[in-house]
């Protein structure tokens, strides 16, 4: 039983990463033109689609409050990806918020 929960948690983390990648691709696409715009937006939609399929699978096998709570990781991943890949600044207040979300998500994930 514990191994199943670990697998579901891993899948949920993967889902949130794919969702954050989708957000990043949308942003990059909107900063592009022509074929790059279409390609990046399309890749973003595919990433989001895969994220949704994985999330639905996990949701069908776990509690909504647990799955949705762990989904808070998507904000953390999106913020860090924005910092790394498009040099968006993260203010001190936002870092504090990210740490609070991480702590809350860890508590939900352990429950």
Helices and strands, with pairings:
Blueprint: H1 2-30, H2 34-59, H3 64-70, H4 73-86, H5 92-110
Taken in chain order, the helices and strands follow as HHHHH
Shape annotation: flat
The largest β sheet comes out as: none
Strand content: under 5%
**Distance N to C terminus:** 14 Å
Low-confidence spans: none
Mean pLDDT rating: 93
Overall structural domain count: 1
- Count of helix runs: 5
Any idea what the radius of gyration is? 15 Å
Structural class: mainly alpha
DSSP summary, beta strand count: 0
Would you kindly provide a written description of the structure presented here, covering whatever features stand out?
- The chain has helices at residues 2-30, 34-59, 64-70, 73-86, 92-110.
- The chain has 111 residues and is an all-alpha fold.
- The chain has one domain (2-110).
- It starts with a helix and ends with a helix.
- The model has no long low-confidence stretch (mean pLDDT 93).
What are the key terms here?
single chain; 111 residues; mainly alpha; 5 helices; 86% helix; flat
Compact overview of the structure:
It is built from 5 helices and no strands.
């Amino acid at each position: 039983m514990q191994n199943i929960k670990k697998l579901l948690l891993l899948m949920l983390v993967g889902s949130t990463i794919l969702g954050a990648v989708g957000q990043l691709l949308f942003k990059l696409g909107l900063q592009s033109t022509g074929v790059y715009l279409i390609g990046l937006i399309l890749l973003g939609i595919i990433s989001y689609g895969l994220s949704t399929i994985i999330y639905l699978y996990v949701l069908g096998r776990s509690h909504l409050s647990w799955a949705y709570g762990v989904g808070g990781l998507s904000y953390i991943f999106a913020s860090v990806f924005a910092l790394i890949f498009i040099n968006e600044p993260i203010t001190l207040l936002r870092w504090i918020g990210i740490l609070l979300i991480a702590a809350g998500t860890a508590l939900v994930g352990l429950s």
